[in-house]
Target: 3-isopropylmalate dehydrogenase
Amino acid sequence: MAVLLQAGATSSISPSMSRRGWWAERPSTPTETPLTDEVLALAKSSDAVVLGAMGGPKWDGLDYSIRPERALLALRQELGLFANLRPVKLFAPLAQASTLKPEVVAGTDLLVVRELTGGIYFGQPKGVTTEPDWYRAGLQPWSTPRPEIERIARVAFDAAAGAAAG
Ligand SMILES: CC(C)[C@H](C(=O)O)[C@@H](O)C(=O)O
Model:
């Protein structure tokens, strides 16, 4: 937020921001959804959403339906945020700090492109079979339709082409 505000102060961008916190406003044992309709509507009407890290051992005991990461998953799904770009760049002075040999990690500069809205997180139907205990199995199908593969591949190839062009 501070960086965005600074960017706004030093450029023609004039961000108007609204901050909504799941953590700050919650009791330590919340009982409701981590993403309220109000926050979702606000996110949908915004040009951009900046999401901070969420989760932690303190909330491990919560029912899955109200765990903090449910908000993250719902936002991804509701906003159609299918592409996750995770750059991995090693700054030279940190090569010695890696558990990998410096000559192996030196110069690392890659982009992990991850699909976020298809696949296993949202695969249906999911659940646990009703077989006897020794044979019980968890089910969660992973299916990624062709258009979802194409669009994420397009993001990745466009990024690669952009990087190659410098
Ligand atoms: C919290 C979890 C659901 C999430 C994910 O795996 O998508 C996170 O680990 C991430 O990598 O963005």
About this structure: The pocket of 3-isopropylmalic acid is lined by residues 69, 72-73 (CB under 6 Å).
